[in-house]
């Protein structure tokens, strides 16, 4: 069965939230719903939550970069051991700043990389999905459904307060 | 029509977009002149640097025992200015301060440009600038590695991390604005904005990711910004030299950096408000809040300065007292007391007395603070090195040569050019952050 897209336009976010609730109750998966707006729209908890592992990615990036930098400095200090007058060849007191800065650099790069991945800007997962042009002051809700089953979601969208609902085929 | 509006967020979105995108198009004579004059200054600065590269460090005023002079002062000054943006923006974003919206991008841009300029000075100061890559840890025929225990290496890693973080922190909230600009611009601009906006569509997945990334980056960048100026302070504090070997140098420098950064931000905001006609967006309220922050930092700066000098005076160590005396009652005293006046007395009067506080007085106080903070760095760097401690060494009076002055002035011109170019290419106020929520239209 081929997919089709319903592009609906709303004037306020409560109507969008209500449409999302009805669609999910009717069996539409969260993965098939996308909200488009010119500013971030915050819904109440439970409506279109998008779980994220960005914090974890950031911490992992920090650990990997910090550990790699420390290991490299340790290697470099022993690879060409300078005369230290009895002081340790490798010391965290002397190189801790490098570890710290590289840890932070790892966190920065991992956060940015994960942002590109999670936002879909790099993946471009569903390239065939039509992107609605969002008029000022409007919020658009895109629903992906099976071609033959578009009637019920269309009714639900209108009932929730959609100003317009347009059916579009994949690009 | 809109003159009585106190919250620019409540303006119609169409007007916000028009007002904030308008400065990007067209090229006025004023803009052309504003960019041409600093470009000429930069050219002269480049000529001076070329002279230094050709004839060696002898063309500067640096001579034994003063090996650190204007270039190191410039380095500390510009790294300090860089704290204007990312740090202030991150604090305001994390605390969700509503008044941050029109000032964050202007501030973040200062950070990136000031870091680029500040980061050049260690290379200029090297003399043989073409060997700067020796700082990089790469396998080489001499089987040598950089000395990771050197504060110079700490500086390199701290600045690289801060530049990377600041560029990303500036870039992330630019993406939605660039996506909007991509639809409405000249062909070359459309291509540029399309490429930079990475195909942003405004979906909730993208917004969620952007907001999460901004919050995380704000936290990370705060930790990095504090560390960067602390590391700069440790360039001095790690040396067992009079009036440098101090445990409070780290926080002292961080406070000074935020102080000078805020002053730079105040001046830049007042200029773009006037030149770009953004009176509706950069209101007196924003300047009033910045003035209060400046006042707070002025008092903190005085506290640290007093703490630093009082402990030295009370300790009465002969080596330290020579430098203390040079600073407070001998050859550097005029500069020292001028610094105290413009960093504390003037802001305290102009910004502390409510009747006197205005955008104009804020700018006057800020110009004074920038001068004062430049003097502070000069007073930290030069007197310690001028007063020798070896019996056979002779003390010298360091004065910067025309080369150092030309390079220094050129960096200020560089800042102006970079800022003007940025403000012509990208909206200086984040448009999407201003978008009114539909329910606010009724207010």
Q: Which descriptor suits the 3D outline of chain A?
A: elongated
Radius of gyration of chain A (Å): 25 Å
Integer count of domains of chain A = 2
Low-confidence stretches of chain B: 1-5, 437-443
Distance between the ends of chain A: 16 Å
CATH architect. name of chain B? Up-down Bundle
Class by helix and strand content of chain A?
A: alpha+beta
Rg of chain B, Cα atoms, Å? 23 Å
The secondary-structure element order of chain B is: HHHHHHHHHHHHHHHH
Total count of helical runs of at least 4 residues of chain B:
16
The chain pair forming the largest interface, with residue counts per chain, is: A-B, 52 and 54 residues
What composes the largest sheet of chain B?
none
The CATH homologous superfamily of chain B is named: Formate dehydrogenase/DMSO reductase domain
CATH architecture of the largest domain in chain A: 2-Layer Sandwich
CATH topology of chain B: Formate dehydrogenase/DMSO reductase fold
Given helix and strand content, the structural type of chain B is: mainly alpha
Proportion of beta-strand residues of chain B: under 5%
Strand arrangement, largest sheet of chain A? Answer: 2-3-1-4
Question: In words, what does this structure look like?
Answer:
The complex is a heterodimer of chains A (171) and B (443). Chain A contains four helices and four strands. Chain A has helices at 13-25, 54-79, 92-118, 151-160; strands spanning 3-10, 33-36, 139-146, 164-168. In chain A, strands 2-3-1-4 form a four-stranded antiparallel sheet. The longest helix of chain A is centred in the middle third of the chain and has 27 residues, at 92-118. The mean pLDDT of chain A is 89. With 443 residues, chain B is mostly helical. The interface between A and B is large, with 52 and 54 residues.
